[in-house]
Amino acid sequence: MSVSPPPITRFERLQRLAKRFPQLDSSGLETCITLLRLSNDLSDAYDASLARHGLSKGRFTVLVRLYSTSETEGGRGLIPAELAESSCVSRATMTGLLDTLEKDGLISREDHPEDRRMYTVHLTPKARQLLEGMLPEHYRRVAALMSPLSEQERDTLRELLAKVSTGLPAFREP
Amino acid sequence: MSVSPPPITRFERLQRLAKRFPQLDSSGLETCITLLRLSNDLSDAYDASLARHGLSKGRFTVLVRLYSTSETEGGRGLIPAELAESSCVSRATMTGLLDTLEKDGLISREDHPEDRRMYTVHLTPKARQLLEGMLPEHYRRVAALMSPLSEQERDTLRELLAKVSTGLPAFREP
DNA sequence: AGTCGATGATTTGGTGGCTAACCATCCGGA
DNA sequence: TCCGGATGGTTAGCCACCAAATCATCGACT
């Protein structure tokens, strides 16, 4: 039996790759991987938390958007295209989200008064009750998540993330 | 006809919500939302870039992991469980990834010499050729993505992301 | 008035990921 | 020796999301 060799870390493999591919910017790639991994973990944790209330990220986002709009704008309702945009999903996906939300009695569709192509979406009392029951807990969780960062660090983080955003077009091009 | 009222921003809606829910930490939530959105955008861009070569994030990660291991450890091969772990997917998902990679002629499964429960996974020459053709371009893109950040900013970003990671257990708890 | 491009919503078909349950094999202790 | 828990991989069934094609309606232009 031979002893197992010392484990090779991700960082070491990356350094080897960088030797072979001069285009590889190791600090950039390392940062990118870190970001993608945290994203994944955070996204999973978010989903798991919402799943306890029978919601997904998409469903939750729609409900909160409707809730915060009705709070501030007197329940005029929103159309699916607006909801899709503000929830960062396609319209096709929004149709599906609204279908299941309606089936679960959390939203209602009402005829748009001026344009028969669309309709307006409204929260039901049941949805309001659900949100008011779960949001305090949810916001407490988010606060706990971010508690390791000072106010200044949060500002810095948002600023750095915004800088990465500015690099996205270059990433996508040709 | 009435003129349309001034649009209400996400930030303003958030401030209204914060009045109603004292648990809401607005800078924390704002930072969290920023992070989730960039994650989503980056993830989509990443997928789109890999899709040009017929790969998904999962498939790509597996191939690169195999490639970098064979480069440094003489092609000893990896077992599915190791690949699942280092790719952050479940073992069930890894089975599916390997199935399609094998069907596309990019990996081969070979009997594990010592344990008949498992097998080892190996890159085919076709996969090597694919990677060597696409990696320079891919790494160039990642470098472009990160080019708006100085070395110091990258360090800071990784550090702040690591801090957010430390908050994840608190986010998940009960 | 009639037509046609723009704009909405939906349907269809596909992908990638997950969990839970399953079977096979290994290995250590009775 | 053999049994049972640990550790593999796979299967079956689910969910969220997407792109592309389709259908309805609107509105502007002739």
Summarize the structure in words.
The structure is a homodimer. Chain A is mainly alpha-helical. Chain A has a domain at about 55-145: Orthogonal Bundle (Arc Repressor Mutant, subunit A), CATH 1.10.10.10. Chain A has 7 helices and 2 strands; from the N terminus they run H-H-H-H-H-E-E-H-H. Chain A has helices at about 10-20, 25-50, 55-75, 80-85, 90-105, 125-145, 150-170, and strands spanning about 105-110, 120-125. Chain A has a two-stranded antiparallel sheet. In chain A, helix 4 (about 80-85) crosses helix 5 (about 90-105). The model of chain A has no long low-confidence stretch (mean pLDDT about 90). At the A-B interface, helix 1, helix 2, helix 3, helix 6 and helix 7 of A face helix 1, helix 2, helix 3, helix 6 and helix 7 of B. Chain A binds a DNA duplex (30 and 30 nucleotides) through helix 5.
How does the major sheet of chain A shape up? 2 strands, antiparallel
The greatest interface between two protein chains, and residues involved on each side, is:
A-B, 75 and 75 residues
Oligomer description: homodimer
CATH topology category name of the domain at 55-146 in chain A: Arc Repressor Mutant, subunit A
Ranges of chain A with pLDDT <50 over ≥5 residues?
none
- How large, in whole angstroms, is the Cα Rg of chain A? 22 Å
What is the number of beta strands of chain A?
Answer: 2
Measured by DSSP, the beta-strand proportion of chain A falls in: 5-15%
CATH architecture of the domain at 55-146 in chain A: Orthogonal Bundle
What class would the helix/strand composition of chain A place it in?
Answer: mainly alpha
**Sheet with most strands: strand arrangement of chain A:** 1-2
Percent in helix of chain A: 55-70%
Arithmetic mean of pLDDT of chain A: 91
- So how many helices of chain A? 7
Overall shape of chain A: elongated
